[in-house]
Amino acid sequence: MRSLVVVVAASVVVAVGLAACSPLKTINLVTPEGSFARTADIAYGDASVRQQLDVYVPVKGTKPPPVVVFFYGGSWTGGSRKDYMYVAQALAARGIMTVVPDYRLSPEVVYPAFVQDSAQAVAWTLDNIAQYGGDVNRVFVMGHSAGGYNAAMVALDDRWLKPYGKSPAALKGWIGLAGPYDFLPIVNPDIKPAFLYPDTPKDSQPIVHASAASPPALLLAGSKDDVVDPKRNTVQMTTLLRSKGVYVDEDVYEGLGHAMMVGVVAWPLRSRAPVLDRVVDFIERDGKASVTEPASGK
């Protein structure tokens, strides 16, 4: 019965590309929970019920473990941390503590509120994660799609952590899965209100903030992504950061679409691309080049 559920779950996710909530819940239902202990519904702010997060503590692995703050996507208009237990489980099973925050969404708020929330969640993590056993000196930010944007802005633009007495220098690195880093002019009507289009500030684009001071990065995308152009975003960001001397590990997986960049983290789908392995390897190397690759990245 369990194997049948796995096959059905995988088929559903492939068919709909993780576009709806129900496939995510199906994946979560077949996600083993024995690899972590979860503390849920922790407030990191008091402006909204969406300023809450869950902490997933691995039951096995090195102590204190490295920490990932994971931001999900949803065009800044939807999404819930409850639907991404499978991502936290995948990382926790590899010995990585995972923090999954919610953040305020459009139309309730507009830019930069969701970036501010992301920074506040990261600041909370830096201030509090040691109490859960995490290594405050090995904190990474990670995100998929719109969440990849949030992670990039926190990692690249020091304006957002500064109000909390923090800076991107406190991060070991950042991980972007199909993240949008350069998307002006905005063509997707669904996200125009979130970014005040056509009056979107130019400095809302992560690409503007790439500098020699940027943390190391792992940037992954799929060649079949028809939502976020991998060449304009992942490849361009990689090239720019490397030109400034920043270490970047980058890959564009042939045949992989936008939603499946995070979908393949789920254990029924991992054979489609080694995204989880690349993320874990980057974290275990503390965002440093391996002995077999140049410091500039691949």
Give a written overview of the molecule.
Helix 1 (2-16) packs antiparallel against helix 2 and helix 4 (113-128) packs across helix 5 (146-156). This protein has helices spanning 2-16, 21-29, 85-92, 113-128, 146-156, 231-243, 260-263, 275-284, and strands at 36-43, 52-58, 67-71, 97-101, 139-144, 173-177, 217-222, 248-253. The chain is 29% helix and 16% strand. The chain has a single domain, classed as Rossmann fold (3-Layer(aba) Sandwich), CATH 3.40.50. The protein contains eight helices and eight strands, in the order ααβββαβαβαββαβαα. It has 298 residues and is an alpha/beta fold.
At a glance:
The protein is built from eight helices and eight strands.
Give the SSE layout.
Elements: H1 2-16, H2 21-29, E1 36-43, E2 52-58, E3 67-71, H3 85-92, E4 97-101, H4 113-128, E5 139-144, H5 146-156, E6 173-177, E7 217-222, H6 231-243, E8 248-253, H7 260-263, H8 275-284
Parallel strand pairs: 3-4, 3-5, 5-6, 6-7, 7-8
Antiparallel strand pairs: 1-2, 2-4
**Helix-strand makeup class:** alpha/beta
CATH architecture: 3-Layer(aba) Sandwich
The total count of helices amounts to 8
The stretches of 5 or more residues where confidence is low (pLDDT under 50) are: 1-21
Strand order of the largest sheet: 1-2-4-3-5-6-7-8
